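quick one before i forget lol
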Amino acid sequence: MALTVPTFPLALGRISSLLLALCACLAVSLHTPGRAAAAPLDGVPAFGHVFLIVGENTSISEITPQHAPYITATLRPQGAWLTRYFALTDGSLGDYAAIVSGQFVRCERNDDFSFTNGDVPGQRACHQNVDNLFHQLDVGGVSWQEWTESAANPCDIFDHGATWAHNLFSAHHSPALYFDDIQAHHSSEDVVPSPECRQKVLPTGGTGADDTSAFDAALQTGDVARFDLIIPNDCENGHDRCATHDAVRQFDDFVAREVPKIQASPAFGTDGLIIIVWDEGADPPRDPLHVGAALIGPQIKPRTLLSRRLTHYSLLRTLEDGFGIPRHLAHAAHARAITSIWR
């Protein structure tokens, strides 16, 4: 009777080969850059410097070659155009708050002031003790600045200027003022800006007509934050007709002047991103919520038209993803990020 001798060396050799293959697979998975972070970031790439420019009161149907020649003829071919992008309310401040906190409250929808000095009986300051993108960036060690055109001082909380002088400043277009961890400190006698507000909520220049000299100088040297929220004055953002007959064209002119400076800045680099969006649309018969948005940068596929429905909450989620913030604020947690436009 023949005896079968077990081939232990052969079996051990096969086991060793399997173990080596398994270790190799584990090594590849452990050392593949960014693989672990890809899922929670929704496929949005890591951002370098982001420049978010907000216009006012313009429906997508008004963004035509006649009224917005630079945006339609120059920027759209360079980047992505979101054809079904929507605002959330017909109050400017509510939409600004939605972009940076994922929610808004009634006083923000009503464009109320962020302060009160007791002159108006029953008037309360409009501000919230809620988390927001500015605080998220602080926690993550990502620098930010809000640039407000025609502001008289850092952390300016008072409306001033005039349409005829092209320097009309509206404080309710400055969302950072409306959060307790950023905004001015309110005492019974005076309004004292917080140190962070004074350092990060900055005028783009002086209070002369359409002055962006400080912002332009920072761009030239590259001395700007990673996240820059740019709020033109109420002439240049398209809110008011300031000695013109075309408010939409006023914003297009602002974009045409500033975007090339941003693109030429040392800060822009190979991972810079410019986002152009409007807070809300025009009054009926225009659609007051259908505003559109444009994204331009080296990471964007040129000539992209995205027709999926998106909102300001989608923009916030995308910003959080691009800056590596894993927790999404309020309604941004349930919104869809802006995808399918990245290289």
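fyi The chain is about 30% helix and 15% strand.
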